[in-house]
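hey so i finally got around to running both of the ones u sent me last week. sorry it took forever, my laptop kept dying halfway thru and i had to restart like 3 times lol. anyway pasting them below in the order u listed, first the sequence line then the structure token line for each. didnt double check formatting much so if smth looks off just lmk and ill redo it

first one:
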Amino acid sequence: MAVRKKGLAFLLRKAGIRRTPKEYITLSLGLSAVIAVFFSAVFIFATIKRGFRPLPAFFVFVLITVVSFLIALIMPRMAVNKRRAEVDSDLVYSVRHFLLKLDSGSALLQALEDVSMLPTKSSRYFAEVFYDIKMGMPLKDAVLEAIDYSPSVQFRSVMEKIKSSILTGADIKKSLRDLMQGMVEDKVLEIKNYGKKLSPATMMYMIFGTIVPSLGATMFVIATSFVGGGQYLGKVLLMILVFILLMVQISFYFLFSQMRPRVGF
């Protein structure tokens, strides 16, 4: 359990969620219960004409609570992916500006401050490093912390170059130029691969997001018409299917969002 807590604490920090694992789990359980109460109330209202039946209502409550809590546990990983995409979207521009400042004779700390004030998405991650330094943390420790908790491999590579320059006095400008060239090539490759990934993902959505729900709903209506109490059972299962379909649609939305290349240079 201690390992899991440590892993969750690291994941929360990486996702930019300023809560302890205990606070996050407690909040997730509370929100899951609220969502479950809402859906249970809708279920009771929809079936009240046939008389209140506590067992199906309890089943709906438990199911929605479990599903909502599992989604809450996945949210930090989704936040990490979002932060990674945000950093990588225009990191090339920020690194280019950082290099220009170094070439113009600015000190490393001054260049970091200038980059942190850029109107780019990645600049706020440089701002987090600069804020730690301004609060009294040594430059080396602030860079090491950024390496540990940054969700972006490319941003960690930039911080690694800065760390190497601090510790060994290596030429940071040359290493950053080489790194930036590799980042540009990766972006071009990502754009080329986007079309290849989009076709199978679209096919999956057509099958699981439209065709299967349509055929499933038709078969469901036919099947419940032959079962005793089919109208009542149909309402229960229909609510469950609607909830599952909603989760599928949300999942595909995030899938396509994550696939889209982030290019901002």
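and the second one:
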Amino acid sequence: MNCGYMKTNNVLFKYAKNNTSQVGEDGVIEEILKRLNITSGSVLDIGASDGKWNSNTFTLLQRGFNVYAIEKSKSADKMFILKETYNNLYPLKIGLTKEKESDNHINKVLEILKVPQDLVFMSLDIDSIDPWVLEDLDRKPIFFCCEIEPRYYPLDMIWHNPSGNKDTNPPQNLTGFGPMYKIAKEKGYTLICTTIQNLFFLRNDMLEALNSPEVTEVDDLTNFNPKYLSPDNKKRWLAYERN
């Protein structure tokens, strides 16, 4: 297993392991649920692909959690086949928009899907309007993970740019660490773990319930691991550290 996005104070990452997740998220989720003594409930997967491939929620589906899954691509068709085996899967094939008056805005889509308010967990990975979805979301899951582009310089506030070049290193059309961290903090969450490309946030009112004094907020600057930066951004980071 590769080291996490942060180089220290990332104790939950030692539990990283994959069932269907990409970079150890399954193990991190399992450990957080164990520490919070949560064995059932509802989870939300935004950008669920086919419900299984690189999924952060399929293991929870297998364990009996209700999984509400949103996906716009053709991969979503496979979720409806998966539902024949798992009646606790609630898939919806739809694309999201930032436009708040649209029927495709996240909160209206959640109403269509009848997603409950008391979510245990959310996985957010749509590689586009993720910051706006998180900002507007009217549910407050106990904890969530969101994917970012780890090659961006962490101090840059890089938001999704639909016209950005996808073929550069790093690509110019994704979202970096800064916006997701800022929005999560403003919504009352603390960063408690990172993998290479996912940030894990826990709702502040649940920090005591985590009952883990060794898990404090992952410092977004002093603990940053430059391993995954693009070459140019790695040079910038080394210069930052020297100062």
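quick thing i noticed on the 2nd:
Residues 25-36 form the longest helix (12 residues).
anyway thats it, ttyl
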